[in-house]
Amino acid sequence: MASFFSKLFGFSGSSEKQAEQAAGKTESYGDCLIRATPMREGPQFRLAGSIERAMPDAGVKVRTFIRADLFASEQDAIDAALRKGRQIIDEQRALLFNDDSPSRPV
Fold first, then answer.
1. Phi-psi region of 9 (alpha: psi -120 to 50; beta: other; left: phi over 0)
2. What are the E-state strand segments in the chain?
3. CATH class of the domain whose range is 19-96
4. Please, which pLDDT band fits residue 2 given cuts at 50, 70 and 90?
5. 42: helix, strand or coil
6. Cβ count near 38 (within 10 Å)
7. Model's pTM, two decimal places?
8. Buried b / exposed e along 89-99 (16+ C-beta atoms within 10 A)
9. Using one digit for the tens of pLDDT, what is the confidence trace for 61-90?
């Protein structure tokens, strides 16, 4: 009976319910590469992705993003992640890769 309530309210101790990354899609935008990597959460997909840029002297810098938006289909989550990646680049272009960190969330 307790097992039923644990599963009903999401208190299961198993790690199999953890969010797992789904296959995504990449898109070139300006001098960056946007990777849509939606995360499966039960029957839905969470908007997630990364923005990569090859630096002339520092290799590749990566900026990851995860948002609260959930989608019923993986393709909808991919499309939204690509749009969000373009938006982040447009809004933060000068500051996005301005620091020394090779990888960080945005």
1. alpha
2. 20-21, 25-29, 32-36, 39-41, 44-55, 59-71, 103-105
3. alpha beta
4. low
5. coil
6. 30
7. 0.76
8. beeeeeebbee
9. 999 999 999 999 999 999 999 999 999 999
In sequence order, which residues have a C-beta less than 8 Å from that of residue 52 and are 6 or more positions away?
A: 32, 33, 34, 35, 60, 61, 62, 63
- Exposure string for 48-87, b = 16+ CB within 10 A, e = fewer: bbbbbbeeeeeeebbbebbeebbbeebebbbbbbbebbbe
Q: Quickly tell me which residue has 């009903």 as its tokens.
A: 8
pLDDT band at residue 94 under the 50/70/90 scheme: confident
Q: How far is CA 65 from CA 5, 7, 28, 82, in A?
A: 33, 29, 17, 11
Please write the tens of the pLDDT for every residue from 21-56: 445 799 999 999 999 999 999 999 999 999 999 988
Helix (H, G, I), strand (E, B) or coil at 9: coil
E strand or H helix that includes residue 81: helix 74-96
